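Protocol step 4 of 5: obtain the predicted structure for the target chain.
Materials: sequence only (see below). No template structures provided, no constraints applied. The aim of this step is simply to have a reference model before the mutagenesis design in step 5. Sequence pasted as it appears in the construct record:
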Amino acid sequence: MRLRSILARDSIADLDSVQASEADAVLFVLNDASRAVGSLRLAATREMSAIAAQGKRVLVTVNHPRTQLLRDDLDAIVTPDCAGIILPHCGEPQDVRDATVLLREFEHGRDIEPGTLKLFPVIDTARGLLRAAEIAAAAPRVTGLVFDADAYADHVGGRAEEHGPRFSYARGLVVAAARSIDGLPLVAGAHLELRSHAQYGFAGAILRDTNAVATANAAFTPTESAVERARAISQVYAAARAEGLLVGRLNTEVADAATARKAVQTLQASGLEEGHSNS
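Step 4 output (structure tokens):
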């Protein structure tokens, strides 16, 4: 799944500019308490199919399970057009499990293959950060984690600086937790540090401005050397499996199933055909 640039629909008034952008995905937000949730759901359902028809992935930020709004959120947006949901304020694995139960119910009732809708828990508190690995592993449909940098800073009493190495530990931990399940680490609230976050290992960002899409796509697209390495790992691992071996060797590295899956992610992020074939 290629999610270098996720454009938040609620921050952009003009649908045409969203559709004309080169964003990999468009995000609809249902958990904004300043607006009637019914109107947010209706707005999302009106536009999802048109955006999906353009080849952009549709993601939806739903309400937390304990708000008692999640079931109605999913009732509105679980369709073949929806690629996944972003689950806010995840502090423990049970948050993921509760959402997963409802997702499975709606998928089954609408003849959608179980597990089709991917899940991205948001890490925005100290508690969530320290349990990030457990949250990531709480359900097979978890496809990555979202680090909400601004919300996390507010929660731990950090300074709201736009640049610099603040919360390096938090960033690194979210990346490691997401990558440990072969998932995508994503970041929100850091539009001025896209290249820096790419260097940390993040795979994409949630954006609130169409002008940031090109920068995000450039920042999170793998370098040519990374693509070459991914191709080599894929070839070595495939050759080893053809010989009945579990691992291959690339110079001093071991090419096992996990590194092969990471190589596929790199090819997907680069937009190469061999990556898409495994998405």
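Step 4 remarks: The beta strands are 5-8, 25-29, 57-61, 82-87, 118-123, 144-148, 184-188, 204-207, 248-250, 253-255. Confidence is low (pLDDT under 50) at residues 274-279.
Proceed to step 5.
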